Amino acid sequence: MHGHGGAPQRRLGVLTGHRHPVHRHPANRRRYDERDTGERMADRVTAWFGSWDFIVAQTVVVLAWITLNLVAWTQAWDPYPFILLNLVFSTQAAYAAPLLLLSQNRQAERDRIKAEHDFRVNELSLRYLFAWHRDAHGPDCRCVAERDPEVDAVLAGTSPALPGKAGPE
Question: Following DSSP, what letter does each residue of 31-47 receive, concatenated?
Fold first, then answer.
């Protein structure tokens, strides 16, 4: 985890002497290193709304609210049917929904960045794998094409052309 005091800790990034590391993965850079103040605040609020601590705290507050208003026969500030409590919940939902959507949209953006990065890594790995195969078997090796014709179709779709392979035949 990130250090929240004391010496910096390493997570998935490179330490730069700052409290938090600089992340190398593009999605992590976007998530941790390039957020503005509003995004950090929205992430903190949604992390709180999505926690057991929030559920327990809200349950305690609601039970105390109802109990105090049911027991207080004379000075009940929100008597049954608890209309003020309902207004508080509506206000909370009005603020929580956009924050949750902001956080969800950023998560979708991070997922797209990760998927694109993973695709590029997989594409490069595949290109190197077949280049090494051709190096090991010689430039005239046809064993991959003979065993699986789709391999050349997949490789033809990648760019640039593989080292040692002269494009479609």
Answer: IIIS--HHHHHHHHHHH
52 token code pair: 């057991």
CA distance 77 to 92: 19
This prediction has a pTM of 0.53
Lowest-pLDDT range, 36-45, 81-90, 154-163? 154-163
- Residues 33, 23: contact at Cβ < 8 Å? yes
Burial string for 49-76 (b: 16+ CB within 10 Å, else e) reads: beeeeeeeeeeeeeeebeeebeeeeeee
Q: Residues 130-158: pLDDT tens digits? A: 888 888 888 787 776 676 667 666 666 66
- Token readout for 159 is 């760019």
Q: Tokens representing 155? A: 């490789």
From the list 120, 160, 125, 162, the residue with the least C-alpha distance to 145 is: 162
Q: What one-character DSSP code corresponds to residue 123? A: H
